[in-house]
Amino acid sequence: EKAEIGLIGLGTMGSNLALNIAEHGHRIAVFNRTSSRTDAFVESAGPLKDMVVPCYSLEELAAAIRPPRPIIIMVLAGKPVDEQIAALRGVLSDNDIVIDAGNANFRDTMRRFSELSGSGLTFIGMGVSGGEEGARHGPSIMVGGTEDSWKRVENVLTAISAKFRDEPCAAWLGTDGAGHFVKTIHNGIEYADMQMIAEIYGILRDGLGMEPKEIGKVFESWNKGRLNSYLIEITAKVLAADDPKTGKPVVDIILDRAGQKGTGKWSVIEAQQLGIPATAIEAAVAARVLSSIKDERQAAEKAYGNIGVERISGDKAALLKDLELALFAGKIAAYAQGFAVMSGASKEFNWNLPMPTIAKIWRAGCIIRSQMLDTMAEAFGSGGASTNLLMAPAFIAMMKEAHPSLRHIVARASEAGSPVPALSSALAYFDSYRQGRGTSNLIQAQRDFFGAHGFERTGEQGAFHGPWGSGAGH
Ligand code: 6PG
Q1: pLDDT value at residue 474
Q2: HSE-up of residue 111 (Cα within 13 Å, Cβ side)
Q3: Dihedral sign, Cα of residue 5, residue 11, residue 17, residue 20
Q4: What number is the ipTM of this complex?
Q5: Same domain, 99 and 232
Q6: 191 & 326 share domain
Q7: E-assigned strands of 212-276?
Q8: What's the domain range around 87?
Q9: Same domain, 172 and 216
Q10: Alpha carbon nearest to ligand 1 atom 7, residue
C-alpha cells in the first residue's frame, strides 16, 4: 500500500509531525539525508512502525507515495529548502506537491511558489505552530498554496492538527505566501505577548520585590481568568521550577539575553513596508535586541549610578488587579496590530485572508492560543472587527474597562524605572488610535515651513501654505 504523504528531515519537528501523521492512520514515507537517523526514527516509532515507510533515496521516497505526491520538507529555513526543492524536482512528476513546513520568510515562499509554477510541481508554504509538543500531538497549521494542492492534503492536515471544540486548527488561508505570512505574524504577536508578560514579571520582581515562586502563583491565578492562555500557563510553570544544580529558581540562573530567529523582525519589516503600525511588536523585537547587549547594559548601569528600580508601594491586591488588566489591555492592542498588518498584507498580495478563520485556528495548538482568541474569532466572524479589532463592540467594552489599568501600570512602572516598552507602546497606540484630533497638524506646519510641502485646511478643500515669512524654507 502506498503512503499517503512523504516527509523529509527527521529532526525533532519532522519526526514529531511524522509520528503524528502515522498515529492518525495515514501511512507516511520518510527520508533523511543521514540514513542512520531514518533507522533511529523507525525504531522510535514503536507500534506506529507499520505506518512508516523508511526510504533511503529520493527516488525510493517518490515511488512510495500515492500520486499526486505531497512531500513535507522540514529542513533548516533558507538555502537548505532551495537545495531540497532542486533535488526533488528530479524525482517528482506533475501535480506533486512540495510542502515547506519550516519557519520560512514568506517572500522566499512566494519566490519558490512562482519558480515552481509551470514546472508541473506545486508548492505549499505551511506555517506550523505549537513547538515540539504541538507537532507531535496537534499543532495549528496555516497553509498557503493553490486550493487544489490544499484539497490533496486537507485530510491529513486536519486530522493531525489541534482541535478546538472539535474544529480542526488547520486551514487553507490563500495562495503562495499566505500561510507563511500568517505564521510570521503569529510569531510577531508571540513576541509581543512574551515581552509584555516579561515586563509584568519585571514589575513584580523589581517593583514589588516578589520571589519567582510567588510571581508564579500570580500567573497561575491569572490563568484561571481572562488572561487564560498557553503563554501565561507556561510562565507560571517556569517560575515554579527549581534548578537541580543549585536549588535556586531556574529563572534566576538564566542569563537575561534573548535569542531570536527572525520571524519577529520580519513581522516588523513587513508592517513598515505596508505602512501599518505594529509598535508593540516592534518594541518586543527591540527589547530582545537590547537584552542581547548585556555587557553594554552593565556598563551603562555603572555609568548611571545604578538607579535601579524603585519599590512600588500601595495596596498589593489592587496593584495585582491593575497588572492583570494592564496585560489584558496591552495584549488586545498588540493583537489589533497583528491583525491590522495581516489585513494590509491581504490587500497588498491579493490573498483575501480569512480573518475569522485565522483567529479560529489560533484557538488551539499554537503558542499564542488563548481564551481571548475565541472572542476575537467571534468579533471577526460578525464583521465587528473589520476596520480594527479595537472597533469591535466586545473589544471596545473590554478596553474601556482595562485601559485605565494599563495607563496606571505604565505610569507607575515608568516612575519606578522598570522598563515597559511593549506595554507603553501598546498604550500609546491605543491613545493615538482613539484620538480624533491628534497633533500632526503641527508636523504638517513644520513640513511646510522648511520644505513647502503644503497642508490641508480643516473644512476646506485644496493645498495650502502657511504665512511663514522670511526664514522659511520656500
Ligand atoms: C511556534 C513557535 C516556533 C518557534 C519560533 C520562535 O509557533 O511554535 O513560534 O515557530 O519557537 O521559531 O522564534 P524565536 O526563536 O525567534 O523566538
Answers
A1: 55
A2: 10
A3: positive
A4: 0.96
A5: no
A6: yes
A7: none
A8: 5-176
A9: no
A10: 129
